[in-house]
Amino acid sequence: MDALHRPLLDRSPALLAEGYAWLPNRMRESGGQVVRTRLMGRPALAVRGPDAVRFFYDERHVRRHRAIPEPVRGTLFGRGAVHTLDGDAHRVRKALFLPLLHVDRIAGVVEHVTAAWDEAVPSWAARPRVTLFDAASVVLTRGVCRWAGIPLAEEEAEPLARDLVAMVDGFATAGPRHWRARRARGRQEARLARLVQDVRSGAVTAPADSVLARVARHRHPDGEPLEPGTAAVELLNVVRPTVAVCWFVAFSAHALHRRPEHRDRLRAGDAAYAAAFAHEVRRFYPFAPFLGGRAVTDLSWHGERLPAGGLVLLDVYGQNHDEKLWGDPYVFRPQRFLERPVERDELIPQGGGEPDTNHRCPGEGITVGLLEALAVRLARLDHTVPEQDLTISLRRIPARPRSGFVIADVQAPAG
């Protein structure tokens, strides 16, 4: 039996046990940038490096259709989402999100979210302690809904934020977190499907060219409008990842607490340093462990072969901590992004490739813009950090500071 069809040991239990370290450990064992393994009963080829990113996003080699496991579709992305499409269907649906790449759109969502942050800080000052992860999720929910044109009553913000966080928090686990994510998605898809129907009927007026208006009028390649449920899925695929920036806000606070020397340059409003800090938070801290696709045909990469239909895994966490690319990958050092230009397919916390044609997240610019602005606000926020458990377990996907990063003695800025 040749190497292509030789049975491999299924490594799914090891993934559950090792979390983010699973693929980096396999790479270390193989001594290279590629490894054959088996996951969820399927042969898999794990790859890493800028060339591997380009290989992974080439639709002649790898497709996303039917590659995302149902538990992930049913919680994180939603059924029929743009992430699950390929070819013309993907490109037509992706056009719905391309305006998010525009500088003015990024500035708009940053403006709304920072305004919501500034509105929230005085209420934090009135409380003995604030869990930053939770508070940031509410701020982001209020800001992105205003920007997207989604009606949101004041009392709806916290329940919606909890549901959006649950969808992200439960995608890669079994048990209570997973079922909480499914219930949250069901509630919010039903709510937004009704909203889309109300916009189409004229019962609700969506702000001109808002995300809500664009989704309500978007059509399939055959000219038919999106089903209300699919439209709801894609609305959530704008709102949900924006609210997921609360993970990076908590990580930013963690970095500033552990390494307070970065605070002064952020406080001073050094824009280039704020961008470098945002990139380093996304590189250094764990979020997506890897991405997956299906082999279109029999494939070979660096001498390792994979049959058609097998899984191709892009080692996101491993690449963002690859010594060959970063030199000192386990040191938090924003300066690295000021020392040399980083290539598109080197830093891949939200995927690689071209955002206008590939599966790279079109909201990546929004994430970076929000992190730049909120890191400055965090650095300028007078507060204390009480004793708490700030460990970040790499076995938990998605990882987060165990305490959610609690702050106390918040001082509201004068004026």
From TrEMBL:
Protein's name according to its UniProt entry: Fatty-acid peroxygenase
InterPro entries for the chain: Cyt_P450, Cyt_P450_E_grp-I, Cyt_P450_sf
Co-factor requirement: heme
Stated family: Belongs to the cytochrome P450 family.
Alphabetical UniProt keywords: Heme, Iron, Metal-binding, Monooxygenase, Oxidoreductase
Organism the protein comes from: Streptomyces glaucus
Gene (name only): cypC
